[in-house]
Amino acid sequence: MSSVLYDAPGAKARIRHLVLGVATFVVVVAIIGFVIWRLAETGQFTEAKWKIFTFPFVQQTILQAVGATLSAFAVAAAGSLVLGLALAVGRLSDRAWVSTPFHWFTELFRAIPVLILMMMFYYGLPPLLGLKWPPYVAVVVALVLYNGSVLAEVFRAGIEALPKGQREAGVAIGLTKSQVTSIILLPQAVRSMLPVIISQLVVTLKDTALGFIVTYNEILFQAKYFGSQIQYGSPIVPSAIVAGVLYVGMCLILSGLAKLAERQLRRSQRVAGPKKGAPALNAAQDAATTI
Questions:
Q1: Domain containing residue 247
Q2: Is the pTM of this model over 0.85?
Q3: Tell me, what's the pLDDT at 75?
Q4: At 277, is the pLDDT very low, low, confident or very high (cuts 50, 70, 90)?
Q5: Do 23 and 104 belong to one domain?
Q6: What region, left, alpha or beta, does residue 277 occupy, with left being phi > 0 and alpha being psi -120 to 50 degrees?
Q7: In this structure, are 124 and 26 located in the same domain?
Q8: Same domain, 131 and 274
Q9: CA-to-CA distance for 195 and 199, rounded, in angstroms?
Q10: How far, CA to CA in Å, does 107 sit from each of 100, 103, 111?
Q11: 42-74 pLDDT tens trace
């Protein structure tokens, strides 16, 4: 028996795959065990190394750092989505004098690393402009410019991937190009590109850790500070473990919320389908009746 794309593995192939799987599992477990053993041998799990995290003031400071991280992420995520939509719409314009500046703006800030943007907005521009702003501003602006430029390409690719008949149907019933984009194309593009959008938002959350370069009081900044405390044995590894666990937890929560939102969108689309037809056509017809 063979499938459409490839031949089904036989008895020897299944045994070979099983052996490779078991061997890979053993190697991975051995590497993890070796790392844990080395950490234990070097005293990274001793009480002296972790004692600093038992103090209420330290725990409160870590919670404040988590709040600072989430605050920067929330504003940067919202700003990136808004900027990405604006840049995508500008790049899709038929007028060259409109699309060209949006194109170069997107390519410029998408090519510059986030760390360089943060340093430029905190150490470079304020002295030139004679201004002074907190590290929070530099972190958020850098994240918005970079991730907004990346999301602009995501939105543009999602819109251009839709069938041309969607746009032609909207124009046929009297909608303008802006109405076709905002009512018909953009909602479908967002739904289809939602996994990519969520992945980029997770990147935005992790990139807040770069704020420690500009002395922004986030999780990594506090982990570096606690890890440098000589009187507690310089707990660099325990501090890194704590910071890593916090970042992993926040990313898992964000991914879970994204999956929940995607499931709700699919469920609402599936329920509305038999009763109202295609969502894009319904939106277009509703908009046409208001013209």
A1: 49-290
A2: no
A3: 94
A4: very low
A5: no
A6: left
A7: no
A8: yes
A9: 6
A10: 11, 6, 6
A11: 888 888 888 888 889 989 999 999 999 999 999
Q: Are residues 9 and 53 in the same domain?
A: no
Would you call 80 helix, strand, or coil by DSSP? helix
Structure tokens at 43: 């005293």
Name which of 160, 156, 146, 151 is nearest 198 in CA terms.
151
Average pLDDT over residues 99-127: 89
**Number of compact structural domains in the chain:** 2
- Cβ–Cβ < 8 Å for 174, 113: no
Crossing angle of the two packed helices 236-276 and 279-290, in degrees rounded to 10: 70
**Closest among 114, 26, 62 to 242, alpha carbons compared:** 62
End-to-end CA distance of the chain: 59
Helix axis angle, 135-160 to 194-207, nearest 10°: 160
In this structure, the answer to whether residues 14 and 135 fall within a common structural domain is: no
